[in-house]
Amino acid sequence: MSGQAEGSTNTEEVPRFRYTAQTAAEIEQRWQRRWEELGTFHAPNPAGSLKGEVSDEKLFVQDMFPYPSGSGLHVGHPLGFIGTDVYARFNRMLGKNVLHTMGFDSFGLPAEQYAVQTGTHPRTTTEKNIERYLTQIRRLGLGHDERRRVATTDIPFYRWTQWIFLQIFHSWYDTDADRARPISELEAQFSSGERATPDGRPWEELPRAEQRRIIDSYRLVYLSEAPVNWAPGLGTVVANEEVTADGLTERGNFPVFRRNLKQWMMRITAYADRLVDDLDRLDWPDKVKTMQRNWIGRSQGANVVFPLDGSAGSIEVFTTRPDTLFGTTYLVLAPEHPLVDELTAAQWPQDPDLRWTGGAATPAEAVAQYRHAASMKSDLDRQENKEKTGVFTGAWATNPVNGEQVPVFIADYVLMGYGTGAIMAVPGEDQRDFDFAEAFGLPVVRTVQPSEGFEGGAYSGEGPRINSANPDVGLDLNGMHLAEAKKTVIEWLESHKHGSGTVQYKLRDWLFARQRYWGEPFPVVYDSDGIPLGLPESELPVVLPDVEDYSPRTFDPEDADSRPEPPLAKATDWAEVELDLGDGLRQYHRDTNVMPQWAGSCWYQLRYIDPDNDERFVDPENERYWMGKRQQQHGPDDPGGLDLYVGGVEHAVLHLLYSRFWHKVLYDLGHLSSEEPYRRLYNQGYIQAYAYTDSRGVYVPAEHVEERDGKFFFEGEEVRREYGKMGKSLKNSVSPDEMADAYGADTLRLYEMAMGPLDTSRPWATKDVVGSHRFLQRLWRNVVDENTGELRVTDAEPAVEVLRALHKTIAGVREDYRELRFNTAVAKLIELNNLLTKEYSATGAPRRVVEPLVLMVAPLAPHMAEELWSKLGHGGSLAHGPFPEAEEQYLVEDTVEYPIQFNGKVRSRIVVPASAGQDEVKAAALADEKVVAALDGREPRKVIVVPGRLVNVVG
Question: At residue 74, does pLDDT exceed 70?
Answer without folding.
Answer: yes
